[in-house]
Amino acid sequence: MFTSGTTGLPTSVKVSHVRAQRYAHSFSAAMGAKKTDRMMMVLPLYHATGGLCGVGTALMNGGALIIERSFSARNFWETAYRNKATLFTYVGEICRFLINTKPGKFDKKHKIRAMLGNGLRPEVWIEFKQRFGVKTIAEFYGATEGNVGLMNADGKVGAMGRIPWYVKKAFNLELVEHNFETGEVVRGKDGFCQPVKAGITGEAIGRIDPNDPRFLFEGYGNAKDTKKKILTDVFEKGDRYFRTGDLMRRDRHAYYYFVDRIGDTFRWMAQNVATGEVAAVLSSFAGMQLANVYGVKVPKYDGRAGMAALSIDGVLDGKALYSHLQENLPVYARPLFLRLVKNAETTGTYKFKKTELVADGFSLSKIKDPLFIIDNANQDYIPLTKKIEQDIIAGSYRF
């Protein structure tokens, strides 16, 4: 199978037959799949969400699989209706694309009763259920190559799953303290990793158990890449854990929530900024179609400044957006730069690409899209001019 490749090219990974069967059985049970069900598939089959989770759910009990050649947000519900689909496999951005379409007569005329997938943000979750009437949403967590799995079986909005204390030993997931500046886990004086408490963001790691096929790590096609993802001597000498590369937090009821990819989260004003949380606030602004948040280097400043590639319905109202962010985000998390794009670059699994955006930075010579910069003095976002760009590079522009 292949990873989604949001911050680089997709990577080939090994997936055992045991794990493939585990996916199929688990999701089939969660969806209450029957032989009369018809799974609509718009995701590529080389990726585990579509090719294993979705396909497995459909075929486990003899159901049908409807494979679309491409995804069309505008025609999705009509296609689902005409194909008599009852199930659907998603990634979060697909759901965001769908709620950004104009209301249509097929919004609730379809027969889709349940859907499974990952990356569905809370603000999209509620609106999606209300508008399209899908009764069951099975949000899950599981990296294609990883040995960690979670599933939200009770519909808790925004959660990826729950691990109550009385079944904790049956899972291998741990959250440990992460150093955002070095990108490494934090070790105490004893040399071991430090677990985080409820409500605190930590890096998710999964115990590698050679005696339990559920908790194996088969690795990548490249041995060097495999070695980078393994932690040793984590809580005791000789133990081994898989680094998911994902940041999570759990609440006091033991529900787990995705925060961000480690490579996406950045530091600004000595604070950690989770791009997913900033994107969620931006997406709730009137007229916002898409929001892809990332960090860019600014001369003479430590860390990375927030920047957002936005697709907006209509004309940007800088003052209104500034006010919206001021009410909903701390000062360090508000994007300093905005880039207005017509279409967002996505991976084969419809996740936003960031590598090229980060490389472009806020350079007017590289970017043809309209660029804006925060103007705190006037509480506005104003066009980025060559003069302002030169002042930023010279270090004379103050944010």
Name the helix and strand elements from N-terminus to C-terminus, one letter apiece: HEHEHEHEHEEEEEHEEEEEHEEHEHEEH
Q: Which structural class matches the secondary elements?
A: alpha/beta
Weakly predicted, low-confidence segments? none
Principal-axes geometry comes out as globular
Give a short synopsis of this structure:
With 399 residues, the protein is of the alpha/beta class.
Secondary-structure blueprint:
Layout: H1 17-31, E1 38-41, H2 48-60, E2 64-67, H3 76-82, E3 87-91, H4 92-99, E4 114-118, H5 122-132, E5 136-141, E6 150-151, E7 161-162, E8 173-176, E9 202-207, H6 223-228, E10 230-232, E11 240-250, E12 255-261, E13 266-268, E14 271-273, H7 275-283, E15 288-296, E16 305-312, H8 318-328, E17 337-340, H9 355-360, E18 371-375, E19 380-383, H10 386-394
Parallel strand pairs: 1-2, 1-3, 3-4, 4-5, 16-17
Antiparallel strand pairs: 5-6, 7-12, 8-9, 9-11, 10-11, 11-12, 13-14, 15-16, 17-18, 18-19
Helix pairs in contact: 1-2, 4-5
